[in-house]
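Fig. S4 source data, part A: sequence.
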Amino acid sequence: MTGCWLRVRAVVAAAVVVLVGAAARGEDPVLVSVTGPLVGRVGERASFEVELVNRSGKPLQKLRVIDYFDKGFHHEASASPIEQKGTIDLMPGTARRLTLDFLLDEPGRQCHRVEILDQSHVFVGGATHCVEVQPVATAPAPPLAAPPAPLAAPAAAAVFPPLAMTPPLAATTPATVAAPIPVPVPLSPTTAASTITVPATAAIELDLEGPAETLSDGVVSYVATVKNKGAGASSPTTLEFSWDDHLTPLEASDGYNLVASKVSWNLPALEPGGQLKRQINLRAKAPADAYRDSPATRSCVRAVLGGFGGGAMVADESCVLISSSTPRPRVRTPSEAGLKLSLADLDDPVRHGDPTTLVCTVTNGGTEPSCRLDLVILLPAQARLDSDRTAARVRIDDSRVSFDPIQAIPPGGQRSFEITYRLPAGGPGRASAILSSAELDGTVERSCQTSFLEP
């Protein structure tokens, strides 16, 4: 297997892309498509292209590519299954193309399946492709020679006309099948030349195009182009659009059917060289919590072409980055919100061995209820909390004491918190209170010093 980076595109021809239905509809993190011949003969070499598309929205690393194939396929590396040497990393929205070659060994319907496993050996995508392998054309046995004439009167040797030979076939790509192909048949003296023909096939290509980025509330247009690049007419097909969140449908080409969050069309047969287009317009909307300086939101539109024999499908995808134009609201400081903080001790100085109680008060002097607040008190080093006299639920981390979040305080209201502690030795004890909030810019800090007397 070999591979290279490319953009997402899928083609079905004398090669057909066969997808697992779930993967084609975006249920698997990796969209897998296989392109290769539909018909072959024993002894021929068949080449298949495998395309992997990361549609998970996140990086995928160390992906394993494993191919399981019927005994009618022969690979130089080993018997089934075979695994690509090394692993593959895919960034979101990118694709990787690999090539796999087989020798066709046995007639009949021969299939191979490509499965993608992540680094935890979990299935993340797969696809199956089958080939109708025909036996090698064999010439009928020549007619028996007539008994030799008597030696005395030898008969003239019968003269057979030369075999009618066809010119060598030009090499073709998997997307093209020459039609019709004459096949030589041995001639006897009494039979005329005859040929058999293989019907020409269609080569269907699907291309979905749309913008790469837009602002929130912008209208984005996506156009799917279906082309027949083969030598034969295609059968009628169906085209379906689906889209991610943050996209809302507005209008579509005539003849559409809207079911849930999908739009589809019934497409007529296409003659060789023919093409048709279908379009959908959607409104993009950034998330409500996104602002001008927020990362863009990625949403994708998928087009799936179905209705081929054997459940084959062709898929393509186009993604857009949606940026918000809303400026981030200015964040107020605690002072601008009208919040005030005080910290005081009830006992100062304190005799050796006795505790002191700190009282911390939060006051809302603003005109609106406060947001949720966080209060932390930093005690002096070596301080010991007197849990029996602490009138609040707290979390202790060394000398850091965190209170449960303070819910909204109405305008003009206040909340008080008490904490009692001791110092094992005399000296000054300095405590600090810090008031903050995730919705405010900055903090309010107050401190209080208490004298603990020596014994």
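Fig. S4 source data, part B ends here. The longest strand covers residues 123-134.
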